[in-house]
Amino acid sequence: MTGALTRLREAFDAAGVTGRLHAVDIDSGAEISAGGDRTVVTASVHKLCLLVALHQQAAEGRLDLTERIDVPAAGRAPGPTGLAAMLDPVRISLRDAAYLMMAVSDNAAAEVLLTRVGLDAVNATTARLGLAHTHAVHGFRELLDTVKEDAGPEGAQALTDPYVIARLRALDPARTNRSTPRDMTRLLGAVWRDEACAPEHGAAIRRLLGLQVWPHRMASGFPFDDVHVAGKTGSLPTLRNEVGVVEYPDGGRYAVAVFTRAAGTAATLPAADAVIGTAARVAVEALRAA
Q: How does residue 2 score in pLDDT terms, banded at 50, 70 and 90?
């Protein structure tokens, strides 16, 4: 694995990011770690924890995933996709809100579900699964509110200023939602082995992770028709993450978690997105060759 670790370090350096990675063969337990036990900011990756908590409550009969809820146009969590970007009142089922939360990382859908499930329940779910380093401090609306507050009166325009970036609470794992790469691959492994939920709910979670639309991060490392990547991204200023499972036609399946922080403050950094796929490919190929 030494050669793979060197290639990972070189890839992260070339992309201008600090990278943390953990990858594991879901069936054999073979693993590779590059800072895999470091505490990282999860951002929207934490929506996966909420999704698992939602399905656990459904499995326990505490909620009905077909229940329809009204989402007024006013007061939604902000964001560029899904309900957050829509202008009119919406009536939607819990499971379709979960689809929007996972497929396009809809912040408004996530906040609706979090209100229904409860932040304490999300933390109870991750604790029950043994994810000792995973904790949600606040909901997604509150997370975005801290970015707005810390950015100051210049708002989003100030987020290219390194001094403003340095004071964002949302980028400090001690003060925001957090985990480790190893905790996230452990969660993914539990979902893929049907240990996180009853099998029908595990299948539903895997389906939603497979419907994510973004191809520019982890999936970019596996441009093959017969290799399937299911994942969830997370983004904040300078921060780009993705956790997911890569499945090969020979039955091999690998949970991978990649968390990065860019040195540059530009919102558009294609190399910083693509290195998540490059790193995942290096890790999975090392596991398959072991």
A: confident
CA distances from 208 to 51, 249, 257, 284 (A): 9, 20, 17, 22
- Which tokens go with 243? 């956790």
Q: Using CA atoms, how far apart are residues 202 and 194, in angstroms rounded to an integer? A: 5
Say if residues 278 and 221 touch (Cβ distance below 8 Å): yes
User: Could you say which DSSP state residue 22 is in?
Assistant: E
Residues, the chain: 290
Average pLDDT, the chain: 96
DSSP reduced 3-state for 283:
helix
**What amino acid is encoded at 165 in this protein?**
I
AA letter at 259: F
Q: Residue 41 belongs to what H/E stretch?
A: strand 40-41
CA distance 288 to 180: 23
Question: Tens digits of per-residue pLDDT, 52-105?
Answer: 999 999 999 999 999 999 999 999 999 999 999 999 999 999 999 999 999 999
Q: How many CA atoms lie within 13 A of 47 on its CB side?
A: 36
> What's the CA angle centered on 109, arms 20 and 41, to 5 degrees?
20
CA torsion sign for 156, 160, 163, 168 is: positive
For 81, 134, 159, the CA distances from 168, given in Å and listed in that order, are 23, 20, 9
DSSP state for residue 267 in the 8-state scheme: S
Query: Do residues 148 and 155 make contact, with C-beta atoms less than 8 angstroms apart?
Result: yes
Q: Which amino acid is at 67?
A: E
